[in-house]
Amino acid sequence: MAWDFETEPEFEEKLAWMREFLVAEIFPLETLDLTYDQIAVVIKPLQEQVKERGLWAAHLPPELGGMGFGQVRLGLMHEILGQSPYGPVVFGSNAPDSGNAELLAVGMEMSGRTEHRAQWLEPLLAGSLRSGFSMTEPHTAGSDPTLLSTRAVLDGDEWVIDGRKWYTTNGSVADFFIVMAVTNPDVHPYQGSSMIIVPATTPGVTVLRDVGSMDDPTVTYGKFGNHAEILYESVRVPKDNLVGNEGDGFQLAQARLGPGRIHHCMRWLGQSQRAFDMMCERAVSRFTHGTLLSEKQTVQNWIADSMAEMHAARLMTLHAAWKMDKVGARAARVEIAMIKYFGAQVLYNVIDRSLQTYGSLGYSSDMPLEAMYRAARAARIYDGPDEVHRQTVARSMLKSYEPRETPTDHIPTRKAAAQEKFAAMLEFMAASEG
Ligand SMILES: Cc1cc2nc3c(=O)[nH]c(=O)nc-3n(C[C@H](O)[C@H](O)[C@H](O)COP(=O)(O)OP(=O)(O)OC[C@H]3O[C@@H](n4cnc5c(N)ncnc54)[C@H](O)[C@@H]3O)c2cc1C
Known about the structure:
This protein has 15 helices and ten strands. Helix 8 (249-283) packs antiparallel against helix 9. The protein is of the alpha+beta class. Strands 1-4-5-8 form a four-stranded mixed β-sheet. The chain has a four-stranded antiparallel β-sheet with strand order 2-3-7-6, with no helix packed on it. The longest helix is centred in the middle third of the chain and has 35 residues, at 249-283. Bound molecules: flavin-adenine dinucleotide (FAD). The site of flavin-adenine dinucleotide has 20 residues, from strand 1, strand 3 and helix 13. Flavin-adenine dinucleotide binds next to strand 1, strand 3 and helix 13.
């Protein structure tokens, strides 16, 4: 019997250690209002412990210092890390650095060139460099990257890049960017786009601002986690700063986004579980209109629905991870798309119900729920808006259906066919009854 919902005991031990470590060492940091630089100092010894345990940057292949765990195990790890905004950074797997490290690794595999390893990848993994991923543009639809207008032209031994990007997460604190640009406008964008490494100090790179958002409406420039608007004007970088080969941009984006979505979804489940725990704790503590909240059917419905939705999202995500491990990201495309929109909605629903259970306290910043709620809203937009993923799933499902004038299940038509099929039997029964 191949169905198996268990985690092997040796790995379960690692997960148990992570759970305790997060609660004891990482949760308390959330309340201290530290700057990024202060956080970097405080978490150093914690990062050392993670390295000693062999859990640092676990998403990378073993030859690059990762553990070769596969997506199911990584998913289970991310479910724990997602409980705190500091979880991923302590474990060397915070976005966008983790995704960019994967891009560099996949790019080296595609091109066969290895010089990016020492210059960019290793310092990124060691945490001595920070990165940004510059794909989305303010004036073209990010949901359709075939519309990208940023151009990179080869001039001698250099790429010359011109374009405007925004929402480059960590753009104002990054040491380098991976920029997606059109390198050949004469072929389909799937073959004509590339990714290029651009050091932040290159002449022509201007970080215009950090964009205020629901996450941080009165944004302070230069904070870790901000989203920057960046102008690239006649930016010249060496030809070899190309990630992978010319024209590999879309393939690289797919390689980065597949596992990334599984990790996001599992981190969302970690967040959902925290919101769920808060909801249940409040339900058994708050008394109103003659009973505890836990005895009101509406609150019970919220708890039951949240539990069912989280369970469904978890099984769907782990199944997508399992399929990726078995047959690769391309074959798991539909499952990955499904968990993107399903998981984002579950996250939003559970936090919303939990916040409602707390009333004014939930709306206040004395509880983490209002911040979690604002962050959760973005999940329906980034990594591709939910509507695009729904479209992927629907299109794939529709492929196996043919148009028919008479519906296959039309009862009168089926009845006529059945009467013909069983005519002899029906005749015999009618005769014996008569
Ligand atoms: C918190 C956050 C962090 C981000 N970080 C980064 C980053 O580090 N680097 C980066 O490059 N980008 C980043 N982004 C940008 C993100 O990738 C884009 O916002 C996303 O791809 C959508 O593009 P858009 O905002 O241009 O929306 P648009 O493409 O303009 O889409 C707007 C809306 O149109 C609808 N829509 C689009 N297509 C369809 C369709 N086919 N069917 C039905 N409806 C549709 C959807 O409702 C969608 O929300 C980030 C975004 C957020 C919110």
